[in-house]
Amino acid sequence: MAGTSEKTENGAGPAVTPLPRAIGAITLFVEDLPASKRFYQEVFDLPVAFEDGASAVFKFDNTMINLLKTEEAPELIQPALVAAPEAGARMQFTLQVDDVDAVCAELASRGVELLNGPMDRPWGIRTATFRDPGGHIWEIAH
Predict the structure, then answer these.
(1) How far apart are CA 85 and CA 93, in angstroms?
(2) pLDDT digits (tens, 9 = 90+) for 49-106
(3) Separation between Cα atoms, residue 18 and residue 16, nearest integer Å
(4) Radius of gyration over alpha carbons of the chain, in Å?
(5) Cβ(20)–Cβ(57) under 8 Å?
(6) Which residues have C-beta within 8 Å of that of residue 82, sequence separation ≥ 6?
């Protein structure tokens, strides 16, 4: 198991197994699963990798995005609380692209309204952001 201690071959104390360096899945809590599922299918042009009555999973290369009905979330995170979408953004996902302006044009053709951008940032990249139906923020950047 990642992060557990084991004895080294020569028995000279514990060796620490390194933690994984990749994120396998991210679970997003959504109020309207059908609308969120449709958004991910249409905007990102991805097939559903798995679904049941409570969730829909999309695979972004080596990372899965699991859209989970908000009412199912407490079981996973208790005693932490599930925040309402109105609480405000606390994170954003960034997708690296070759041409931010071209991707913005494609997003617009798919009915996506940008929150900001495209714009050149002081730290040297060009970005634009948009929100999914669950209120999660996505950024495209180059």
Answers:
(1) 16
(2) 999 999 999 999 999 999 999 999 999 899 999 998 889 888 899 999 999 999 999 9
(3) 6
(4) 19
(5) no
(6) 29, 70, 73, 74
